[in-house]
Amino acid sequence: MNRELKIYNRFDELILHLKFIPNDSLPLQIEDGTPELREAVRSLSGKDFDQTVVVEKERRRFFAEWGTPEYLDALAGYWSTNFGWQSSIVEAAPISKFSDAQYDSCFPTLLAGQYVAYGNAHRVFPSFGEIDLQNSQVARLSTVNFLGASLDVTNLPANLFTVRSEPRFVFSFQPDPTLLKTENYSVGFGADQYLAQATVRVNNPKVQPIVNAPNAMAA
Amino acid sequence: MESFLQPVSVADIRDVYVVDLSQVGSQFATLDNDLTELKPTLLSNTSGKKVVYFVSFYTSATQPILDKPLERWLCENMALEGASSKKSKVAFRVNFFLRSQFHHGGFARYLLPREEHVFRQWGASEVQTLAMYDGRWVWTRPEFGYQCSEFQFSSIQQQYRDWQRTKGSSYVKAKNLADFPKAFLLSEVSSLKLFKNLEDK
Known about the structure:
The complex is a heterodimer.
Chain A: E1 2-8, E2 14-20, E3 28-33, H1 35-42, E4 49-55, E5 58-64, H2 70-83, E6 86-92, E7 105-111, E8 114-121, E9 138-139, E10 141-146, E11 149-151, E12 161-165, E13 168-173, E14 183-189, E15 194-204, E16 208-218
Chain B: H1 2-5, H2 10-16, E1 37-45, E2 48-56, E3 66-79, E4 87-98, H3 107-122, E5 126-131, H4 135-138, H5 150-166, H6 182-188, E6 192-197
Parallel strand pairs in B: 4-5
Antiparallel strand pairs in B: 1-2, 2-3, 3-4, 5-6
């Protein structure tokens, strides 16, 4: 399973974005980062990670063998314990397992007399990437498409929107139960052409639309 | 125990901690070498064997010199910090907490080279330590000759960059461990693993 680690400094700035790709000769790929942390990661190549940090008389050991998925956990643990940096780890299932994806949560909420469905995604597909909106940015959903067949966005309620809060991509909408059934969708955000994919399942269209998590992706 | 320590012996280790009082500060005038205790133990686990030993120093009035006994490990198969993916004999300095009235008497500067001489004789490739508390500053001073891994140094450099920003200072890159200011190390880094290559000398 592909995994991604993001590290943020005290100013909530992204200072490292690292991808772990299993069974790869270069399992750690630096997507983004400061020169300092790029250098730090490059120096680890081929080495098991073994660091101990002492905090308030307690020793915490962070160990992982090179090439294992746990390497990102060890790095995140070391940096957050030793320097107080925030971290997030996103797990990405291979695209072929899309239909098997597990989601953080999905729940319908009654809002203004209509059911609004929310899905929280924590997976990112390696072939696409991730929507990367900065703090409190809001992207308005501009298009919705069935995979393989376009859906005219004007046929959907006008108040479709998305908000992303790290590390989760959250979206909500007021669905028309006659339109939204168990399907895959791709969505775009304005001119940026970000894409997300969502499996929407309406168990009982008249009462309880449930959105199974969108899987955030950027084209 | 003795076969593990060869070609050195427990007696050689004991000799390291016999202090020539003319070589240390006047606050050690009452240190009584006859009261110094050395307690070595041979341990083994799946990754190999190690000798763990503790040393306690006392004044003639039996007042301890250290807040807790000095602790050292001699490990036969430990990952080297200075060489990737290589394991070898390593001496590990676990703690050295001098009571405050004995600070600034040159005790560490006296003992550490003596320790390293025996560690080198035993065959250690490196001496390592985990610097914490005041040790984050003390052990990173150039006279002790420690360095840290490139990974740690670059990580600390990132923290240093951000710390300078909070102070409104323009970024000055540290060239080596000794360049990091005391206030920074003691407030911004919880601990750091240091090592010294014993094979070079």
